[in-house]
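Forum: Protein Structure Q&A
Topic: Joint prediction for protein chains with partners

I've read a bunch of threads here and the consensus seems to be that you should model interacting components together rather than docking separate models afterwards. I'd like to see that in practice. Below is the full input, 451 residues plus whatever partners are listed. Could one of the regulars post the assembled result?
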Amino acid sequence: MRRGHSLIGIIFLSILLAGCAGTQSRNTDPENDPWEGFNRKVFAFNDGLDKVARPIAVGYDKIMPDPFQRGVGNFFRNLDNPVIYVSQVLQGKFGESITTIGRFLVNSTIGVLGFFDVATKWGMPFYNEDLGQTLATWGYKDSRYLMLPFFGPSTFRDGVGRLGDSYIHPVGRAIHGNDEWTLWIVRGIDLRARYLDQDAEFNEAYDPYVLMRDIWMQNREYQIYDGDPPILDYDMYLDDFDEEDDP
Amino acid sequence: MRISSLLLTITCFFSNGVWANLQTDDPVTLIKDITGQIFADVGENLEKYSNDHEALKALVRNDLMPLLDVRYAARLVLGRAGRGIEAGKIDEFATLMSDMLINRYSAGLLYFSSEVKLQVMPQRGDLNPKITRVRTRVSLPSGSLAPVDYAFHKTADGWKAFDVIVEGISYVTTYRNQIMPDVQANGIDSVIERLSKGELELPE
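Posted by a regular:
Agreed with the consensus. Here's the joint model:
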């Protein structure tokens, strides 16, 4: 029954490929993105996949009424709970991990397999946790940016975390156990549909690759610090500005 | 004519009411008062503003602009690409950048519609005049909370915000990484021209 190694394959292959990536002319952030050349290629590859994925997501978005889409989103978010629980325990957040168990029980039953987020209304909040964040709180704070084929933006650390998550997450387990990709694909379409509004502006950006990296990396930092990251060093931005014009 | 001057008087009076609070030496109160005011106004006149986007933008501009340090934000965004550019051009760029922010903010207000609620988180620790972050939570109609933070610093004219941070994503940082290379490659005039045509927007 252990045929489903394609998931691990994708992640490992991309890590391997990254190692072989040749030097590229563009190096917009050598510190956080030393594999930019490789990452840009994967970005272009994913962009190609999007030519297929986007029309499906557009169709899904047109056909499905908003409450139903919200329900689908809730359903998948409910399936995240086992990963969240394990991550919370590994980070020593025991009180929050109890809440996560409560959320899972309430939403899976009263919330009809997670379609309705009853738990939030009952004062059991959603916590965003995963193994990548766990590695970060254990001290693996800085990790190089890594664009994964199919999965999108990540870091080396979060790629490893994702692999671990997939052994806990029901959607990942379905792939590992039975090569059952249906849930994964439906989740992908649902996720893609959420970002349709932003497509136009993304495509108009001066450098869509950098835009995606900036948005993802900053939001990831925000998740790692549970919504309270260190304040940016804005002075750094001013250092190289001509101070003559200062009033 | 008489009506419009009356309106003007009322507006000034009303603005004075809002600005009286500006004397409070506290960015948390500032955000609470001003965004609370904007949300309340839009909530009460949602139909009017849905049909008249210009009026909505005017309202947002009137209430929000005095709170922003757009020139400082522009300097942060331009970074080394701003070197050697005359102050007038930088001000022009700053104005266009704030226009964009106001458009985005106004569009967001309508989208959130009447159900929007704002929570301003209490300040922890002392206020740092160099940089203080004010954290807010905007509750969306879907029931989820959007975290919106503001970066403030203290100027000669009081506390001013120079960055908006949504779910950890800094407007200044993200915009800077698009604009700086653009200015370096194509020059400030080209960027200003495209900005004034409504291009170069950032996704939410």
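Chain B touches chain A at residues 75-80, 82-84, 86-87, 90, 131, 133, 142-143, 147, 151, 162-163, 167-170, 172-174, 176-179, 181-182, 199-204 (CB under 8 Å).
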